[in-house]
Design brief:
There is one protein chain. The chain has 175 residues and is mainly beta. It has 2 helices and 9 strands. A hairpin with a 5-residue loop joins strand 6 and strand 7. The chain is globular. The N and C termini lie far apart (38 Å).
Length: 175
């Protein structure tokens, strides 16, 4: 399985990362990345998270291939940061939004065609790139349920459904 960046994340999810390997039982240190302009938002978007207590259960077929991955946990603090529009400069935070999550459960099922269907409930962030469906850039933090497909061969995410509350992180951080 292949993925290039953790684009779906939460206490239980960190879903794209979990597509590659089981998550650790606890995430104690800050984990972060900064996306280029017009990738996650119309500005450089930083995402970091810390804390959490994650449990992972991997299900394999008779050949040892992962066919289902369940990740659950709580207690992660996620911070989204607007680092502005000017590529080539050292990132300088303009504004940030911190969300204390109360937990989530993410199930990733590998389909017969190799794509993966992810069902995430609870607190989950989802970043859609311009190559995804629907086309990004967008970063939405959900409290509820999201379902999306991932094509590991191309890295394309396809959002299938959402329910519950959503927060448009890009709109909140736009200056």
């Amino acid at each position: 399985m292949k993925t290039t960046i953790a684009r779906a994340f939460a206490p239980a999810a960190l879903a794209a990362a979990a597509l590659v390997a089981p998550a650790p039982a606890a995430v104690a240190e800050d984990v972060s990345f900064i996306l280029p302009v017009k990738t996650g938002c119309d500005f450089r978007l930083g995402v970091s998270w810390t804390g959490g207590n994650l449990q992972t259960k991997e299900f394999v077929d008779e050949d040892g291939n992962t066919i289902r991955l369940l990740v659950s946990g709580k207690g992660t603090v996620i911070t989204y940061t607007n680092y502005g529009y000017k590529p080539g400069r050292n990132p300088t935070p303009i504004d940030s939004l911190t969300i204390r999550t109360d937990g989530s459960v993410t199930e990733t099922v590998t389909n017969p065609d190799g794509t993966q269907t992810v069902t995430a409930t609870g607190h989950n962030g989802l970043i859609l790139f311009p190559t995804d469906e629907p086309e990004g850039p967008s970063t939405i933090h959900y409290t509820g349920k999201i379902v999306y497909n991932v094509d590991p061969a191309t890295g394309v995410f396809t959002l299938l459904s959402t329910s519950g509350q959503s927060l448009d992180v890009c709109a909140e951080l736009a200056s």
